[in-house]
UniProtKB/TrEMBL annotation:
This is Beta-glucosidase. Residues 685-754 form the Fibronectin type III-like domain. InterPro entries: Cellulose_Degrad_GH3, Fn3-like, GH, Glyco_hydro_3_C, Glyco_hydro_3_C_sf, Glyco_hydro_3_N, Glyco_hydro_3_N_sf, Ig-like_fold. It comes from the Bacteria. The lineage of its organism: Bacteria, Bacillati, Bacillota, Bacilli, Bacillales. Keywords: Hydrolase. The keyword Chaperone does not apply.
């Protein structure tokens, strides 16, 4: 049988296998049930496949399993009933072995896992969320992180992941803002390319490589009102220039899987949008991987979008538009054969989809190397090297927003520190959504990170009080918080938000800070998937707590831990220092302490503009010149602009040159600028290049990011940074919806953020 011959190409093996398959077996390859429901755990921690799973294999097979190792409140997989890294790998082998030995053709399962900011399995490393990662402006570091995530996941048998998230966020009230890299298409595209290189490695069948899945295709971050899955109102020009751009760059980098978004665009759901899934993705871009839906997306065609009256119609619409696999698997498994028999789809269309899935399995090496090594999984997953990497990513992603009177860094010989707030010592609050249960001691909180600085003196010099919760109006913890703060020389306020699901951790005694296990735990979740907000203010009585602490006259350092921007003008005006950490992951406490005490000079920069108030939205920096006039109550400028962030040193820019200053439409020029560390300590600067097209055939943004470099300079050091500008940086989507470089004048700006920098001119001519 040629499909078992490893010397043949994946395409040849696929063609041979398809000829041997029944329609039921082909459909089986297109379905992806929930993997954690396919087994039961025995008392000795081994697993057995369920009778239902055995029946599905006997009835035509299954192509893929979703989240077999995923653990969280949704799956109801806990530390107690879940699997360790080694046990998880053994479980994957058990399931795979059953399929290979009990199916007619022996087609292996493709195991898909969630890896937004780390493998979502028990014991795996929890890295910072993508919003923190984007704030590093360090694509090389992110590529290294992706290699670590791929190694952990593949070592357990996971071969595909549902990341990276390439949504360009427009309205930060959206609960999934934390899963994005930011508001700019160029920045998102750069991280997209890094993720593909990191996750997929040099070859897909490598032992540390994962099939990356680009999501959510497309414009999911531009939904109406920032509501998850709401309609998107966008023209094709903006769609191509902004939201499609990161996906295009990722496809060019070799991405082999794409997931359509839940939303509709101009009345057409992404799940059955043939223009997007076929015309653009395959015909224009040359994508030759496979397309998998989001969970339950085909169901929405019948109930939600209502573009189909029956399940058969919905399954047919999806398949004909280009869908190759259904996450959850219920609609294809139930209705696709009926649609085939009714003539709603053809055998050729079914073969095309099944063939794409099978060819990817061959490319991944699953037919030739279907099992994994449990011993290796035990060594790699959650390793110290990966924890160290998580700490570095978190530290580089922390943004210093304000530092009045050089409040930071804190002196090593400072007397007492009061660490106060609901995010001071609540582990899950600093991890973000899509997180697995964590063993005690696995997460380093802000309190623990600061305490670790003082050794045996920590109990005496570091005081702690939660003060209040993220949500709720209880002030019963205020008195104890004020008592602690009154004894301190400086107060660190750890406040913000939470994307923590209910992991059964109980609640906090606001009077003592102790964890209290109750029958019904308190949920502080105000961010994450499906948790959208109408405002961006702090919830509960957090602002009031900060105001009461401030009255003591102590230096107040606010540390925000959250998944979306916070708008609190009073804090912006009154706090002595403000640090934005987003969700910094398992090593976040150490990373924040490194910043607060100056072991690490802050180098994070904003990738989302932070408005003064929610009524200004949208406030993205690359708005059109024709965005309208100011509001009666306020202007259109953000509180903190895109690209902004402070350092403990000072950088100066000089000698900007553009040579040549006149180029043809297909030409290139080089931009150079000198950057000097004018301070007295080493630091890293993010040098940002923006381009303005001064006159064009269609309206343009006032400016657009087209390049960035993160450089490290010693005190007094100067370095020349160069950028190449060519067609890719200068083109726009013209009147015919095709990319074009138009002759004319361009303004080049290079500086520390989107509002400041040295400027020069560039002329493009025929």
């Amino acid at each position: 049988m040629d499909y078992k011959n490893a010397s043949l190409s994946p395409k040849q093996r696929t063609e041979d296998l398809l000829k041997r398959m029944t329609a039921e077996e082909k459909i089986g390859q297109l379905v992806q049930p929930f993997g954690w429901k396919t087994y039961t755990k025995n008392e000795d921690n081994t697993i057995e496949v369920t009778d239902e799973f055995k029946a599905q294999i006997a009835q035509g097979g299954i192509g893929s399993l979703y989240g077999t190792l995923r653990a969280d409140p949704w799956t109801e997989v806990t530390l107690e009933n879940g699997l360790s890294p080694k046990e998880g790998a053994e479980a994957i082998n058990t399931i795979q072995r059953y399929v290979l030995e009990n199916s007619r053709l022996g087609i292996p399962i493709l195991f898909g896992e969630e890896c937004s900011h780390g493998h979502m399995a028990i014991g795996a490393t929890v890295f910072p969320v993508p919003l923190t990662i984007g704030s590093t402006w360090n694509t090389e570091l992110y590529r290294e992180m992706c290699r670590a995530v791929a190694a952990e996941t593949r070592s357990q048998g996971g071969a595909a992941t549902y990341s990276p998230v390439l949504d360009v966020v427009r309205d930060p009230r959206w609960g999934r803002t934390e899963e994005t890299f930011g508001e700019d298409p160029h920045l998102v595209a750069e991280f997209a390319v890094a993720s593909i290189q990191g996750l997929q490695g040099e070859r897909l069948d490598g032992e540390d490589s994962l099939l990356a899945t680009l999501k959510h295709f497309v414009a999911y971050g531009a939904s109406e009102g920032g509501r998850n899955g709401a309609p998107v109102h966008m023209g094709l020009r903006e769609l191509h220039e902004v939201d499609l751009h990161p996906f295009k760059k990722a496809v060019e980098a070799g991405a082999m899987s794409v997931m359509p978004a839940y939303n509709e665009i101009d009345g057409v759901p992404c799940t059955n949008n043939k223009y997007l899934l076929h015309d653009v993705l395959r015909e224009q871009w040359g994508f030759d991987g496979f397309i998998i839906t989001d969970c339950g997306a085909i169901n929405m065609l019948v109930s939600g979008h209502n573009t189909a009256a029956t399940g058969e119609e919905a399954a047919a619409q999806a398949l004909k538009a280009g869908i190759d696999m259904e996450m959850s698997g219920t609609m294809f498994r139930t209705y696709l054969l009926k649609a085939l028999e009714a003539g709603l789809v053809t055998e050729e269309e079914l073969d095309l989809a099944a063939g794409r899935v099978l060819e990817m399995k061959f490319r991944l090496g699953l037919f030739d190397r279907p099992y994994t090594d449990p011993e290796r999984a035990e060594q790699i997953i959650g390793s110290q090297a990966h924890a160290d990497l998580a700490r570095q990513v978190a530290a580089e992603g922390v943004i210093l927003l304000k530092n009045e009177g050089a409040t930071l860094p804190l002196r090593a010989d400072i007397g007492k520190i009061a660490v106060i707030g609901p995010n001071a010592n609540t582990p899950y609050n600093q991890l973000g959504d899509y997180t697995s249960p964590q063993a005690p001691g696995q997460i380093v909180t802000v309190l623990e990170g600061i305490r670790s600085r003082f050794g045996d003196d920590a109990d005496h010099r570091v005081l702690y009080a939660p003060g209040c919760r993220i949500k709720g109006d209880s002030r019963e913890g205020f008195a104890y918080a004020l008592e602690c703060a009154s004894q301190a020389d400086v107060v660190v306020m750890a406040i913000g938000g939470s994307s923590a699901r209910d992991f059964g951790e109980g609640t906090i005694d606001l009077r003592t800070g102790a964890s209290v296990v109750t029958e019904h735990s308190w949920s502080d979740m105000e961010c994450g998937e499906g948790i959208d907000r109408a405002t961006l203010q702090l919830m509960g009585v957090q602002l009031e707590l900060v105001q009461e602490i401030h009255k003591l006259g102590k230096p107040v350092v606010v540390v925000y831990i959250n998944g979306r921007p916070i708008t609190e003008p009073w804090i912006d005006e009154h706090a002595h220092a403000i640090v934005e950490a987003w969700y910094p992951g398992q090593e976040g406490g150490h990373a924040i302490a490194d910043i607060l005490f100056g072991d690490v000079n802050p180098s994070g920069r904003l990738t989302v503009s932070i408005p003064k108030e929610v009524g200004q939205l949208p406030v993205n920096y690359n708005a059109k010149r024709t965005r309208g006039k100011r509001y009666l109550e306020t202007d259109l400028e953000p509180r903190y602009p895109f690209g902004y962030g402070l350092s403990y040193t000072r950088f100066e820019y000089s000698n900007l040159t553009v040579e040549p200053a006149v180029i043809p439409v297909d030409g290139e020029t080089t931009v150079r600028i000198d950057v000097t560390n004018a301070g007295d300590r080493e630091g890293a600067e993010v040098v940002q290049l923006y381009i303005s097209d001064l006159a064009a055939s269609v309206t343009r943004p006032e400016k657009a990011l087209k390049g960035f470099r993160k450089i490290r300079l010693g005190a007094g050091e100067t370095r020349t940074v160069s950028f190449t500008i060519g067609r890719e940086q200068l083109e726009l989507i013209g009147m015919d919806l095709k990319p074009v470089v138009e002759p004319g004048e361009f303004r080049i700006m290079v500086g520390p953020d989107s509002t400041r920098g040295e400027t020069a001119s560039l002329r493009v001519q025929e």
